[in-house]
Amino acid sequence: MKQIFLDPSRCIGCRSCVAACRECDTHKGESMIYIDFIERENTVATSPTLCMHCEDPLAPCAQVCPAQAILVSADGIVHQADESRCIGCQNCVFACPFGVPKFDVRGNYMRKCNMCYDRTSQGKGPMCATVCPTQAIFYGTYEEFIAAGRAKQGAKPVNQFYFGAQPVQTRNYVVLTEEDEALDLMALAQEATKGYLIDLPAASAGDNAAPWVEADDAGIPVRAAPPQPWAPRQPEPMPRVPGKPEPAPTH
Fold first, then answer.
1. How far apart are the first and last CA of the chain?
2. CB 143 within 8 A of CB 2
3. pLDDT for 24-40, tens place per residue?
4. pTM, two decimal places
5. Structural domains of the chain, ranges and CATH numbers in brackets
């Protein structure tokens, strides 16, 4: 079975995947993949985010759908909501541990990545993986990923995630560099600090700035305002050139 391997260390934020995702026939011009910043206060590093197609527990978004609008195919692909069934409750949006499903307000239905099912069901790669210039999005089997030489570079694919005490196993993988068998996202969230608490160097924008000086103190002449500020200013007369006739007055 072929999966998607997401490697944030290779992402350059070019958003080729976002543009290509719009071209998928089932997406109607809307992109189902997102580029997220990692520690935006510290670095410009980015990471692609798409549906992880949860396997255990199976598709929490589908399990909380009261209208059975989200279906899972036999090959484990979790599809986006069927427009004719979706009732707009947004349970799926709140249930997804990865924050992938988005609610289309204009269409009044949920949309998310379905791994380009119109392509992958025919043996083709998803649009995002086919255009990624750095292979930050790799599509293939686990054996193909290892054969591509990524394991020799210290890559460690992980598809086991922990949200507190709740483990979630996914069809797709996230590529890490450490020898971790699972990724505890709640622990990472607790260790993270907000931007205003982080130890950043002092701002230097005002080092070369001069203090504000009033016009009177700076000796700048103040132009007198006309008696009626809303009236247009009268143009100053042009200096007369000797030997040139006066222009005819205009009415």
1. 86
2. no
3. 777 778 888 988 887 76
4. 0.68
5. 3-195 (3.30.70.20)
